[in-house]
Fold:
Amino acid sequence: MDKHARILVVDDDENIRNTMKTILEDEGYIVDLAANGNDAIEKTKKSAYNIALLDIRLPDMEGMELLKLIKDTVPRTRKIMVTGYPSMQNAIAALNKNADAYLVKPIDIENFLSIVKEQLQLQENEKEFSEQKVAEFIEARVKEMSIDQP
Structure:
């Protein structure tokens, strides 16, 4: 698991952004911050992120909308929804819109770091699986091409 993973924290509360940044940087992660959805979208166009932590309530858009709009990278950004207003409806909506995890504020640091590490491991597993499938495809294609040769 890559300790140099890039993480984007999107929250309109400056204290929460800075607290998450400090916790994550103490673990060796590279952290960028965004105060709103539009800023987050611009950052995902310019940089690749392993994880995006998205607040459900932002000043310019709902976190659920942002979930659909941010660019997937590395090979697919893991998206963790964060809310201070937990509800079963929010959790179900987040998961239905392809969130990978759901955290409730105030954040429990151990749980927070555990979820981040788990998501990075899942991402690494997906990457290895994808690479294996590509290698199998190339190997099969090379065999097909050698059969087709006179």
